[in-house]
Amino acid sequence: MELKWLEDFVCLSNTGSFWKASEERHVSQPAFSRRIRALENWAGVTLIDRSSYPVTLTSYGRHFLQYAQETLKTSRGIREEFRLVSAAAENEIRIATLHTLSIYLLPRLIGALIAQRPDAKAVVIPSVQGVELHFDALANGVVDILLTYGDRAITANLAQLDEFEEKLIGEDEFIPVASAAFAQRHALKNLRDGARPLPYLAYSDFSFSEKLVTQVARSLGKRLRVVYENSLSESLKAMVLQDCGVAWLPRSTVRVELARSEVVCVGDGELVIPVRINAYRLRGGSSEAAGAMWGIL
User: Fold this and answer.
1) What residues does 225 pair with on adjacent strands?
2) Disulfide-capable partner of 203 in 38, 56, 210, 222 (CB 3.0 to 4.6 Å)?
3) pLDDT tens per residue, range 179-225
4) What's the pLDDT tens digit per position in 242-294?
């Protein structure tokens, strides 16, 4: 259960309208409806009477409302208490990032921060959760900076994007790859050549990378058959190296293996996906360490 589901529920109880509540919560109405349904699935009962307009709470919903309000009040109090504590730690910076970027990009940036500010402490959170949660953490002050892929396919539906300052810090590209042994076994040079289905190592549907890759992968129709799914590029890379199938991986993660010819690219330029690497921070004040890190970026 997520706290934002409770906030959605309380908002809906106040407005009596899915449309009005979705506007207040800055999400699309279908996404808002899915979140209310997810809360009901979690509770195991129907909380909303949808048979009339405005919508009303069921008897379960009325009973649940007081718990939702009390939980939100408690959580906000806890968060504010910890914000006050963390505000005193001007040398600490909390960075949310993708697992891949935490391995291949962030270490040299943190090294530059420590060289500039030896008293700084960096807390890195390599989250594997969904797109929304990364930006929610930034908007709510849980983290100071978010490093992630900044493609518009990812950020287009984020209502709170205007709340953030954005900075381009790098570029990469996702390329379709397979192990050399797999490519040789299947006589594979280009995924567009041939119709025989190939095992496909896919990203989980809640991940940043899936939002980037899915449209290109689907353009190949039945050429790819999903046999494995994971949100982490490193896990897909391990499966590629075990000769298990084809995956789209950031070039930065397989640079060494490509140079050694252990892995080969199996697509032309149309199957290569360029990506931006962006940094985001909440507009307004930040700690001294966060400001120093932003300057380094």
Assistant:
1) 199
2) 210
3) 999 999 999 999 999 889 999 999 987 777 888 898 899 999 999 99
4) 999 999 999 999 999 999 999 999 998 899 999 999 999 988 766 778 888 99
For residues 61, 67, 68 and 70, what is the CA-based torsion angle, rounded to 10 degrees? 150
Whole-model pTM: value is 0.66
* Pair of tokens at residue 128: 């594997």
Class of domain 172-274: alpha beta
Which residue do the tokens 């381009």 mark? 168
- Domain at 86-171+276-296, CATH homologous superfamily: Periplasmic binding protein-like II (3.40.190.10)
Cα separation, 31 vs 251, whole angstroms? 33
Two structure tokens written together for 38: 């997810």
Report the DSSP beta bridge partners of residue 92.
Answer: 121
Q: Peptide bond before 199: cis, by omega within 30 degrees of 0?
A: no
Cβ neighbours around 139 below 10 Å, total: 17
d(CA 210, CA 230): 10
Q: Are 101 and 147 spatial neighbours (Cβ–Cβ below 8 Å)?
A: yes
Query: Using CA atoms, how far apart are residues 180 and 240, in angstroms rounded to an integer?
Result: 10
Indicate if 172-274 has the same CATH topology as 86-171+276-296. Answer: yes
- The amino acid present at 60, given as its one-letter code, is Y
Q: Is 266 left (phi over 0), alpha (psi -120 to 50) or beta?
A: alpha
Q: 105 to each of 46, 101, 130, how far by Cα in Å?
A: 46, 5, 20
Confirm or reject CATH 3.40.50.2300 for domain 3-84, answering yes or no. Answer: no
